Amino acid sequence: MAKQERAVRTRQSLIQSAAEVFAREGYAAASLAHISRLTGVSNGALHFHFETKRELARAVEEEAARRLRTITEDAPVDGARGSALQGLVEATHGLMSRLAEDVVVRAGFELGGEPALGATAGVRRYWQEWVEDMLERADREGVLADGVTPERVAPAIVAATVGFEVLGGRDRGWLSGQRIDAFWELVLPQLTGEAV
Amino acid sequence: MAKQERAVRTRQSLIQSAAEVFAREGYAAASLAHISRLTGVSNGALHFHFETKRELARAVEEEAARRLRTITEDAPVDGARGSALQGLVEATHGLMSRLAEDVVVRAGFELGGEPALGATAGVRRYWQEWVEDMLERADREGVLADGVTPERVAPAIVAATVGFEVLGGRDRGWLSGQRIDAFWELVLPQLTGEAV
């Protein structure tokens, strides 16, 4: 394996181990020595890739954001009437099953609530903006009921999905497709003015 | 001031300072020395009341749970048709304004997501059970629409309120009455089968 390829793999392994340790112990309690040991590399190798724990946390957030984008980009939003809401529903399901199985995505979301890292909240913010964007598209497609505006309904939908994500960090049952279905059944009729 | 009364006041001040430090820096990063300094007492005085940071965190959670109970007990739930849902709506508003102004309640909720503290999640759990209880009462009052069961809708409502709480920890705008109104406008018609 070429030297550069090995470096890329080590970097990915460090991000994976860091996500595991952050998710289990929290960012503040996590130690770099523990992360390098879990990855099976020396402290020096870790420091070659990441000078500080903060840099490593940022890399976890960036990787989580990249994976989240693959979910949102997979959503079949093509401008056809109803496609934006359909895409939003599918992406929430995609996000929740990804959160259940992928610790990098889970840790990336959780790092947004970490006081020691300051005010970025990168992954949650990306998700929030995407949800807002989908509701604006749904509005342009003409599927929102009279009196329903994207600005008014977006916070409720963002809050619910963030709530499932946070509660799912402790108990994967919160991420089940059944619970997400039940949420949309409760909300979609009022969004569109139609029975589901 | 009698010695005992002073001890009670010091204990309350320590809980208040601890909540401020936990909310700002996170539990893991918070130092007992910082908390005693902020309270204006010696480390020895702090240790007289709380032997460990964990004990102090538990005291913050208990105080937050006590305050949350005053909100849920204020909800006018008397068994009359519609009173349980009305009480639930009022308590969510009460909780969000309390979260906006009271750092002990805010820190108490956030400590439930703290990995270092283990699996208790005391305050969020109390809130979840209360929401479930109100929806069961609403069902017994006969106000839930056909096909709506408390078990199916409770997770969505718990998730949304936890989401508002978590996002509100970073940005108080998430706790505004307007956003909570918008959430209930979206959800109540489907819950009850009636327009709001």
TrEMBL record, chains A, B:
Residues of the HTH tetR-type domain: 8-68
DNA-binding region residues: the ranges are 31-50
Does the keyword field hold Repressor?
no
- Where does the sequence pass through the membrane? none
> A Pfam family matched by this chain, by name?
TetR_N
Question: Which UniProt keywords are present, listed alphabetically?
Answer: DNA-binding, Transcription, Transcription regulation
Under NCBIfam families, the record lists:
ScbR_bind_reg (NF041196)
Protein name as catalogued:
ScbR family autoregulator-binding transcription factor
